[in-house]
UniProtKB/TrEMBL annotation:
Keywords for this protein: Membrane, Transmembrane, Transmembrane helix
Residue spans of biased composition, Basic and acidic residues class: 10-22
Region: Disordered, residue numbers: 1-23
Keyword Protein biosynthesis: no
Transmembrane segments: 25-48, 60-79, 91-108, 114-133
Originating species: Streptomyces roseicoloratus
Name used for this protein in its record: Integral membrane protein
Length: 151
């Protein structure tokens, strides 16, 4: 085996042309990223509020803040996976969108200033689901339907 052929086998990523990322996959990654950032930001706001406002139950507020931050990491990791075209990332991204729908519904039922947040969340969740179910997205992630051969 020559040194040129061994270099070809150790670094295949240098031999192939990078495939372009479909716009729908990029948009799905952006939707998941926005949702993840919103959850992390909400958790951090809750953390700061609980530490500065001593009128409530500190333990519950801290647990709520930690939960929001932890839940925000799921769509952020999924967004990164979608961006890098990892097939595993579609599952957590879809679950995030499905779980966002009842939250959006509850925000819409609040009859307060939370209604615009509910509308925005519902639009993000439905958009995310449509983008994640798109044939160009599933193809870019290497996901095929049963009975369909991988090319």
């Amino acid at each position: 085996m020559s040194s040129a052929s061994s270099a070809d086998t150790t670094r295949p990523e240098q031999r192939t042309e990078p495939e372009s990322r479909p716009g729908r996959l990029t948009a799905a990654a952006a939707v998941a990223g926005v949702e993840g950032l919103a959850l992390v930001a909400g958790g951090l706001v809750m953390l700061v509020t609980s530490l500065t406002d001593r009128s409530g139950d500190l333990t519950s507020a801290l647990m709520g803040a930690a939960t929001l931050v932890a839940l925000g990491l799921i769509p952020l990791v999924a967004a990164r996976g979608l961006w890098l075209r990892r097939s595993w990332s579609r599952g957590p991204a879809v679950i995030t969108q499905v779980l966002a729908l009842p939250v959006a519904w509850q925000l819409l039922q609040a009859n307060s200033v939370m209604i615009p947040a509910g509308i925005a969340l519902a639009l993000l969740a439905v958009t995310g689901l449509v983008l994640l179910a798109s044939p160009s997205t599933t193809e870019a992630l290497g996901i095929t339907r049963p009975g369909q051969d991988k090319a």
